[in-house]
Amino acid sequence: MPHTEADLAQVLHTGPFHLALRTALAVRGLPLQRVQHHLAHRGVKVGVTSLSYWQQGARRPQRPESLRAVRALEEVLDLPGNSLIRLLAGGGAGRVDVERPAARSYRSLLEASGAIEELFADLETPSDGGLHTVGHHERVRIGPERELLTRDSQQVVRAHRNGVDRYLAIHRGDPGCDPARVQVRAGENCRAGRVRRHRATGVVVAELLFDARLRAGDTYLFAYGFDDGTGGASGEYVRGFTFAGGQYVLQVAFDEGALPMRCRRFAQASTVAPRGARADLTLSGLHRTVHLVEQGVRPGILGIEWAWE
């Protein structure tokens, strides 16, 4: 059934943003390519893919240039001033936030937080992607040259917002890493989307697309990995946690030709805080692995460090 002006007026009042935009496009009968053309005439550059993501609810415009495009959209679609911007600012009545744990910023947990925030902004994705982790099993493999070869994750997340359908995975290589050569592997229940790389810090951010759009409170299990092997000798593996709760398991496996002299687990409140809660870990003889298990993760940093000699 075609949308009417009354439908448009209603959804501009209630939101959410993506539904209001989609309804406006339908009522005005404008294809996305034509909208892009009108925006270009107003000096606003935005891709058809971005417009499509906005109307699907797959992404929300957040950068200053994207918000400028939204204001221009109000003109192109002959909508009341600030009608779309208001829905972005307030989230709209259709947006639901539940079970969202208290969060820490990346800035306190990762030395390369500036690079990560830059890559997130380029993907037009907020640092809080609407998900928090309830279980994470991570396996790291160290190669014969003491380099970080691979890391594999199986992760269970819970949505604290409606409409979430992706996760941004972060990889930071060791000094000397070439992020252009780092490969992303999507495993069960997801597929690889866009990938952004920051050469100066060795950071790679990969978009993992789910097979379903989650409702607030839904859980989702998926797997993914990174193939690296481009950095120098690795001496530790750390994981920063922005949210509390859930179980984290980290296993590090070493090549038989490169075994460390000592391995220890540690915890850290932030990147500038001293490391504490250190405990020696015993390297298994057969599989050459060490591991840690944290039943109730707290915001902060957990990791395993090792000494080669």
Q: In words, what does this structure look like?
A:
The protein has 309 residues and is of the alpha+beta class. It folds into two domains: 5-90, Orthogonal Bundle (434 Repressor (Amino-terminal Domain)), CATH 1.10.260; 106-307, Sandwich (Immunoglobulin-like), CATH 2.60.40. 23% of the residues lie in helices and 35% in strands. The chain has seven helices and 13 strands. It has helices spanning 5-14, 17-28, 32-41, 48-56, 64-76, 83-90, 113-122, and strands at 131-142, 148-159, 164-172, 183-186, 190-198, 203-214, 219-227, 236-241, 247-254, 262-268, 276-281, 289-294, 300-307. The strands form three sheets. The protein has a six-stranded mixed sheet with strand order 4-7-2-1-9-12, with no helix packed on it. The chain has a four-stranded antiparallel sheet with strand order 8-13-10-11, with no helix packed on it. α1 runs antiparallel to α2.
